[in-house]
C-alpha cells in the first residue's frame, strides 16, 4: 500500500456496529462515505490514491451489503420467532443481473451513496457498470425467478431461492461477419461481493450404485441406497433485499465439490493428474449453465445437475425443519416448495426417499406430505422442450429414485383405472413412463402427480395446458391446474431503469405508487393533459438518446432518436418470429426504394437476443438480421428513413437501457406458443405501444390496457391449431401477397448475402412449405398494423396519450401481484395482508 494519507472523512464515527440486534444506521452522506472508505481500507487494503474503479465497486457493494445484513438478521430472527411458513423456490435458473443498484434503491440510499462516492471523485453510474451481470439463466423463466425473489422480499413473504452456482453463466455473444459467436462467461473472475460461502452447510449427493432391501426382525423391510459416487453440495448465500429494506430473503446456490479434493494415494504414487480426477468430475456438475431453452438437453450432465441441486435443497429443507420441529409430519404446514418448471421435478422422488427410507415414514403418509408440500409451474407447451429421460440412464444414475417413480406410477394408474375408469389410451397419457419412445420418464407428469397445485403463467397458457400436455391428468384431477399470470418487479423495471419517468409520475400523482404500483392507474387522467403528455414524451426522447448512444458506441451506427424505435428483444426462436419482423423490414425497404417520394415515417428496427448454440435456424435468423442491417444501413436511397440494428449480447443490464427507450414493442409470437412473455410487460410499463398477437399475457394486457391502446393482429391460437390440422401451406398465401413475395425472393436470391447467395434458401423455403410458424399466414395483417402505427406517429398527441394509458394500466402486471396470488392460493404463506389481495 502506498503511504499517502487516507482521505479523512468529514464526520466523526457515531455509527454502532452491526450486532445480532441491529440498530438502524444513519443514512446520510457522511456516514456512507466513512463506511465505503473503511471497506476500501480494511477489506480491500487500498488507499484512495491507488484504488481503481473496481475497488470502489467492491467497497461500495460491501458497505451496502453490511446494511442488508442488518435487515437480514432481523428478518431471519422474526421468521424463526414467529415460526412462519417458508416458501422454497426451486429453480435451475436465476437471471438476476446486477444487484448494486437494486440494493441501493430498495434501501433508499441512492442519493447518499452517489454523494458519498462523489466526495472521492468517483461516479456511482460508472461504478455500477463494473458489476458483472449475473446471468445464471437463459431467458424468461430465469428472469421470472429473479423478479419473484425480489417481490417475495418486498411483500415480506419468507422465502429461500434454491439453485445452482454456475461458474460460467449464459454465454457472451459476439457477432462476427453477421453470425453469432459464443464466448465463455466468467462472472466470478473477480470474486462476488454479494455471496457468503457456508462451508458448514454442505450435503452429500449420491449417484449410481445399488439399492438393497434390508429386513430386520420386528420392522418393516426398508430400502437402502448405496451410491457408487458421492459429491458435496456447498451452499453460497446471497441476501435479497426487498423494497424499503423491510425484509431480506436468501438466495442459496449450490456449488459441487469432491468429498476428497485430492486422492492422496494417487498423489503420493506420482499420479498428480489422476489425484485430481474426482475433483474435476465433481466440479463439472456446477461448471456451466446449459444454454438451450427450446429442446431438451438430454445429456447425463444435465440430469446430474437437476438431481444435485434438488437433493441438496431438500436435504437442507428437511434438516432445517427438524431443527425446529421434532417430526416431519407438519412439513407442509411450514414449507411450500415451488418447482420452477420440471427441472427440479426429480425432487418429488427424492423427498419420498428422504421421508420413507431415511426418516421411516410410512409410504401413504409420505405421499400425503409430499403432495401437500410441492406445487409446480409449467412454462412452455413446446413438445420439444418437455423433459423426459431414458429409463436406462435414470436407473443407472438414480436407482432408488427410479424405483420410487415406478411405485408412484403404479398407485396413479391403479387410481385412474379402478376409481376413474380410464381406458388404456388415457392411462398411457397420464403414465409417468412414456412407453412409446424407447421408455422414458416424463418429468411433467412426475411434477404434476407430486403436487397439490399446478399452474400456467397466463390465462391462455393455462387453458391450453388443460387441453394439450395435461389433458388427461387434468380430467383425472380437475381441481389441480390453476392460473397465475406472470409479473415483473416495478422496482427494477420502472423505478431503477426509468428514474426520470418516475419523477414525472410522482409530480403528477404523488409518491404512493412506489409502495402500491396499482396506484399508477391515477395517471390515466393525465393522458389527455397536453403538458403532462409532452413531458412524458420528453422523458421517452431522453431515454432514446441514451440508447442511441449505446448503439453508436457498440455498433458505430447512428440512429435518430426522433424516429420510431421499434424493438424486438428476447431469445431468438422460430416461434417468436423475429423472421416475420425482418421480412416486414425488407418489404418496407423495397417500398421506400420504389416510392421514395412518399411521406415515410422514419423507423429504427432494433433487435437483440441469443440463439441456443445448437439451434441452426435461430442462428440463421440472427445472421439474416445482420445481413439485412448491413445492406439497408449502407443504402443512401433510404435516407435514414429506415435503420436496422442488432445489438450483441442481450442481457439484463442491456434490457434496462432498452425497455425505457422503446416506442413500439414487438410481441409477435405464433399464437398459442408464448406461455406468457414478460418483456411485453416491461415495455408497456415504460410507455411503449405493443404490436402483438393474441398470445400469452398479451391477451390480458389487451384487457387491462384496452383495445384502443394496443395493436393486436394475426391468427388466434385456435386458428393456428386449425390451420395446422388442415395442412396449411405457405406458397399459395405468398402468391397472393406481392410485398411478401418480393421480400422473400430478395432474401432467397442473395440480395442480402451476395458472397453466399444460397445462404437463406432453406429458411425462406420453410415459409413456402408448411409455414409451421404461420409467418406467411400472418404477414399481411402484420404489415397493415405496422402501417397503422406509422400513421399514428404523425398524430403525436394521440400516440402519447396512448403511451400514458399503457403505463397507467400496467400496475396489475407487477410480480408483487403474482406473488400475492401464489401466497394466497398455493403456498398459504406470507403476511395476511399479502394473502388478502383481491
Ligand atoms: C427448457 C430447457 C430444456 C432443457 C435444456 C435447458 C432448458 C432450459 C429452459 C427450459 C424451459 C424454457 C421455458 C421458458 O423459459 N419459458 C418461458 O417462461 C417465461 C416465464 O414464465 C414466459 O414468460 C415465457 O413465455 C416462456 O417462454
UniProtKB/TrEMBL annotation:
<dbReference type="InterPro" id="IPR035090">
    <property type="entry name" value="Pyridoxal_P_attach_site"/>
</dbReference>
<dbReference type="InterPro" id="IPR000811">
    <property type="entry name" value="Glyco_trans_35"/>
</dbReference>
<dbReference type="GO" id="GO:0005737">
    <property type="term" value="C:cytoplasm"/>
</dbReference>
<feature type="region of interest" description="Disordered">
    <location>
        <begin position="1"/>
        <end position="27"/>
    </location>
</feature>
<dbReference type="GO" id="GO:0005980">
    <property type="term" value="P:glycogen catabolic process"/>
</dbReference>
<keyword id="KW-0119">Carbohydrate metabolism</keyword>
<dbReference type="InterPro" id="IPR011833">
    <property type="entry name" value="Glycg_phsphrylas"/>
</dbReference>
<feature type="modified residue" description="N6-(pyridoxal phosphate)lysine">
    <location>
        <position position="682"/>
    </location>
</feature>
<keyword id="KW-0328">Glycosyltransferase</keyword>
<dbReference type="GO" id="GO:0030170">
    <property type="term" value="F:pyridoxal phosphate binding"/>
</dbReference>
<keyword id="KW-0963">Cytoplasm</keyword>
<dbReference type="GO" id="GO:0008184">
    <property type="term" value="F:glycogen phosphorylase activity"/>
</dbReference>
<protein>
    <recommendedName>
        <fullName>Alpha-1,4 glucan phosphorylase</fullName>
        <ecNumber>2.4.1.1</ecNumber>
    </recommendedName>
</protein>
<dbReference type="Pfam" id="PF00343">
    <property type="entry name" value="Phosphorylase"/>
</dbReference>
<comment type="similarity">
    <text>Belongs to the glycogen phosphorylase family.</text>
</comment>
<comment type="function">
    <text>Phosphorylase is an important allosteric enzyme in carbohydrate metabolism. Enzymes from different sources differ in their regulatory mechanisms and in their natural substrates. However, all known phosphorylases share catalytic and structural properties.</text>
</comment>
<keyword id="KW-0808">Transferase</keyword>
<comment type="function">
    <text>Allosteric enzyme that catalyzes the rate-limiting step in glycogen catabolism, the phosphorolytic cleavage of glycogen to produce glucose-1-phosphate, and plays a central role in maintaining cellular and organismal glucose homeostasis.</text>
</comment>
<keyword id="KW-0021">Allosteric enzyme</keyword>
<keyword id="KW-0663">Pyridoxal phosphate</keyword>
Amino acid at each position: 500500500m502506498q503511504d499517502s494519507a487516507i482521505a479523512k472523512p468529514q464526520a466523526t464515527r457515531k455509527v454502532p456496529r452491526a450486532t445480532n440486534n441491529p440498530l438502524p444506521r444513519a443514512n446520510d452522506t457522511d456516514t456512507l462515505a466513512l463506511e465505503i472508505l473503511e471497506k476500501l481500507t480494511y477489506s480491500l487494503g487500498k488507499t484512495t490514491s491507488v484504488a481503481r474503479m473496481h475497488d470502489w465497486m467492491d467497497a461500495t457493494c460491501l458497505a451496502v451489503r453490511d446494511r442488508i445484513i442488518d435487515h437480514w438478521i432481523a428478518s431471519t430472527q422474526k421468521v424463526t420467532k414467529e415460526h412462519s411458513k417458508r416458501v422454497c423456490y426451486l429453480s435451475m435458473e436465476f437471471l438476476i443481473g446486477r444487484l448494486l443498484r437494486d440494493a441501493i434503491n430498495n434501501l433508499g440510499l441512492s442519493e447518499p451513496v452517489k454523494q458519498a462516492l462523489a466526495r472521492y471523485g468517483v461516479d456511482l453510474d460508472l461504478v455500477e457498470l463494473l458489476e458483472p451481470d449475473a446471468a445464471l439463466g437463459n431467458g424468461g423463466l430465469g428472469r421470472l425467478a429473479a423478479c419473484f425473489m425480489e417481490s417475495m422480499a418486498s411483500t415480506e413473504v419468507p422465502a429461500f431461492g434454491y439453485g445452482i452456482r454456475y461458474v460460467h453463466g449464459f454465454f457472451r455473444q459476439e457477432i462476427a461477419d453477421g453470425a453469432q459467436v459464443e464466448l465463455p462467461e466468467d462472472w466470478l473472475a473477480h470474486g462476488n461481493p454479494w455471496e457468503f460461502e457456508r462451508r458448514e452447510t454442505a450435503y452429500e449427493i449420491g449417484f449410481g450404485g445399488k439399492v438393497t432391501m434390508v429386513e430386520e426382525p420386528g420392522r418393516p423391510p426398508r430400502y437402502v441406497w448405496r451410491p457408487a459416487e458421492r459429491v458435496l453440495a456447498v451452499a453460497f448465500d446471497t441476501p435479497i433485499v426487498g423494497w424499503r429494506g423491510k425484509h431480506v430473503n436468501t438466495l442459496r446456490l449450490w456449488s459441487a465439490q469432491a468429498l476428497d479434493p485430492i486422492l492422496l494415494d494417487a498423489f503420493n504414487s506420482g499420479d498428480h493428474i489422476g489425484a485430481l480426477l474426482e475433483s474435476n468430475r465433481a466440479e463439472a456438475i456446477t461448471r456451466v449453465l446449459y444454454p438451450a431453452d427450446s429442446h431438451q438437453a438430454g445429456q447425463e450432465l444435465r440430469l446430474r445437475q437437476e438431481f444435485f441441486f434438488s437433493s441438496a435443497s431438500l436435504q437442507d429443507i428437511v434438516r432445517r425443519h427438524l431443527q425446529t420441529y421434532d417430526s416431519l409430519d407438519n412439513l407442509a404446514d411450514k414449507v411450500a416448495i415451488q418447482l420452477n418448471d420440471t427441472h427440479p421435478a426429480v425432487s418429488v422422488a427424492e423427498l419420498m426417499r428422504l421421508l420413507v427410507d431415511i426418516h421411516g415414514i410410512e409410504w401413504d403418509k409420505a405421499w400425503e406430505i409430499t403432495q401437500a408440500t410441492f406445487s409446480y409451474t409449467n412454462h412452455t407447451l413446446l413438445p420439444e422442450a418437455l423433459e423426459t429421460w431414458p429409463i436406462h440412464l435414470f436407473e443407472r444414475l438414480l436407482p432408488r429414485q427410479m424405483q420410487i417413480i415406478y411405485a408412484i406410477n403404479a398407485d396413479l394408474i391403479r387410481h385412474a383405472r379402478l376409481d376413474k375408469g380410464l381406458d388404456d389410451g388415457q392411462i398411457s397419457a397420464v403414465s409417468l413412463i412414456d412407453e412409446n419412445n424407447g421408455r422414458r420418464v416424463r418429468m411433467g407428469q412426475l411434477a404434476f402427480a407430486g403436487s397439490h397445485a399446478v399452474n400456467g403463467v397466463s390465462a391462455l397458457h393455462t387453458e391450453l395446458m388443460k387441453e394439450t400436455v395435461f389433458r388427461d391428468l387434468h380430467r383425472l384431477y380437475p381441481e389441480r391446474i390453476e392460473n397465475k399470470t406472470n409479473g415483473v418487479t416495478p422496482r427494477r423495471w420502472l423505478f431503477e431503469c426509468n428514474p426520470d419517468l418516475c419523477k414525472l409520475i410522482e409530480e403528477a400523482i404523488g409518491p404512493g405508487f412506489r409502495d402500491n404500483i396499482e396506484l399508477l392507474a391515477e395517471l390515466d387522467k393525465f393522458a389527455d393533459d397536453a403538458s403532462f403528455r409532452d413531458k412524458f414524451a420528453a422523458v421517452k426522447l431522453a431515454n432514446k438518446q441514451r440508447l442511441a448512444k449505446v448503439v453508436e458506441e457498440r455498433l458505430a451506427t447512428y440512429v435518430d432518436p426522433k424516429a420510431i424505435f421499434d424493438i424486438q428483444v428476447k431469445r431468438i426462436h422460430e416461434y417468436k418470429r423475429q423472421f416475420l419482423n425482418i421480412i416486414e423490414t425488407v418489404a418496407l425497404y423495397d417500398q421506400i426504394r420504389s416510392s421514395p417520394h412518399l411521406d415515410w415515417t422514419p423507423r429504427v428496427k432494433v433487435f437483440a437476443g441469443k440463439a441456443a448454440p445448437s439451434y441452426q435456424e435461430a442462428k440463421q435468423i440472427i445472421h439474416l438480421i445482420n445481413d439485412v442491417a448491413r445492406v439497408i444501413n449502407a443504402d443512401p436511397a433510404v435516407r435514414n428513413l429506415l435503420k436496422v440494428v442488432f445489438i450483441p449480447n442481450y442481457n439484463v443490464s442491456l434490457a434496462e437501457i432498452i425497455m425505457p427507450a422503446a416506442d413500439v414493442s414487438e410481441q409477435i409470437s405464433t399464437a398459442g406458443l408464448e406461455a406468457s412473455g414478460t418483456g411485453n410487460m416491461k415495455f408497456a410499463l415504460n410507455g411503449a405501444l405493443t404490436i402483438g398477437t393474441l398470445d400469452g399475457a398479451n391477451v390480458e394486457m389487451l384487457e387491462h390496457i384496452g383495445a384502443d391502446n394496443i395493436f393486436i393482429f394475426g391468427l388466434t391460437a385456435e386458428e393456428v391449431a386449425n390451420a395446422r390440422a388442415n395442412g396449411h401451406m405457405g406458397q399459395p398465401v405468398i402468391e397472393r401477397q406481392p410485398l411478401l413475395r418480393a421480400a422473400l425472393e430478395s432474401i432467397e436470391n442473395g440480395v442480402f448475402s451476395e458472397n453466399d447467395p444460397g445462404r437463406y434458401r432453406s429458411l425462406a423455403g420453410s415459409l413456402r412449405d408448411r409455414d409451421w410458424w404461420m409467418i406467411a399466414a400472418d404477414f399481411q395483417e402484420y404489415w397493415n398494423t405496422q402501417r397503422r402505427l406509422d400513421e399514428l406517429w404523425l398524430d403525436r398527441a394521440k400516440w402519447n396519450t396512448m403511451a400514458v394509458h399503457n403505463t397507467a394500466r400496467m400496475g396489475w402486471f407487477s410480480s408483487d401481484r403474482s406473488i400475492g396470488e401464489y401466497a394466497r392460493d398455493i403456498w398459504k404463506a406470507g403476511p395476511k395482508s399479502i394473502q388478502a389481495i383481491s
